[in-house]
Amino acid sequence: MNATAHILDGTALAKKLKDELKKEVARLKETFGGVPHLVNVMVGSDPGSCAYANSQKKTAEYIGIKYELKILSGDTTQAKLISVIKELDSDSGVHGIMIHKPVPDQIDYRAVANYVAPSKDLEGINVTNIGKMMLGQTRIIPCTPAAVMELIRSTGVKLRGKEAVVVGHSEIVGKPLSLLLLAQDATVTVCHLATSQAGRLVEHVGSADVLVVAVGKAGLIKGDWIKEGAIVIDVGINKVGSGITGDIEFEKAGRRASFITPVPGGVGPVTVVMLMRNGIEAFKVQQEAKR
């Protein structure tokens, strides 16, 4: 690998951010006499989901946040789930709510997510918070895009005037991330399936000073497409054989990039911390509203 390439260690960055949040929670406890109380509502008990929830719980405990996992049966109706959310919304002792994905087929995740009060929306995906983000008026940011921005920030490279290319335009990563990059005065291009079908993907990737890929297709982005010296963030998580890999050819891309995230160990660990940061911001917003 090129000696100038630097691995962006998400686990190390997550530890640094957790330590900062731990101090902030201690200050909040001293100021307000309480700490954030977060509730993760899970429908069914998928093993992978439970493992992720356990990671959240450990992170919350380290920071000093109260974390509750509320597991509903896999056959829970949408109406019942909405009633649970409304009950949590009305509980002043609960400061943050999330609905764990995936949900069973009988649940319309997008519809249900919008029942979470904007001030308690842990994942920042309520339509009100997405709209506020477009206007630069929210402190609760979707967790994965927020993690990507923290990793980019850790490089010390300023985004102003840089060519930023996002591959993937999902509602939870690509679209909100493009807004966050624009807010830092990057010139942003968003690529998707039609970009590839038009034969323009290689061209756009090759122009990127900052490249973020969030598609979910192993090896989609070839290493020799990468611009020399680029910052490369791989959000993809793909099971290949017994291992996990990203959307980018890591070894080849690493010989051209100046900074690159590994998979696993890149974006994932930071994303969990961003969830906790949203919980802290939600708590502060609610405390400020009482004044």
Structure, described:
The protein has 291 residues and is an alpha/beta fold. It contains 11 helices and 11 strands. The chain has helices spanning 10-32, 47-63, 78-90, 109-113, 127-134, 143-154, 174-183, 193-197, 201-206, 250-254, 267-289; strands at 6-7, 37-43, 66-72, 96-99, 163-167, 187-191, 210-213, 231-234, 238-240, 243-245, 259-260. Strands 1-11-8-7-5-6 form a 6-stranded parallel beta sheet. Strands 3-2-4 form a 3-stranded parallel beta sheet, with helices on both faces. A two-stranded antiparallel ribbon has the order 9-10. Strand 5 (163-167), helix 7 (174-183) and strand 6 (187-191) form a beta-alpha-beta unit. The model has no long low-confidence stretch (mean pLDDT 95).
Q: How does the SSE layout of this entry go?
A:
Elements: E1 6-7, H1 10-32, E2 37-43, H2 47-63, E3 66-72, H3 78-90, E4 96-99, H4 109-113, H5 127-134, H6 143-154, E5 163-167, H7 174-183, E6 187-191, H8 193-197, H9 201-206, E7 210-213, E8 231-234, E9 238-240, E10 243-245, H10 250-254, E11 259-260, H11 267-289
Parallel strand pairs: 1-11, 2-3, 2-4, 5-6, 5-7, 7-8, 8-11
Antiparallel strand pairs: 9-10
Helix pairs in contact: 1-11, 2-11, 6-7, 6-11
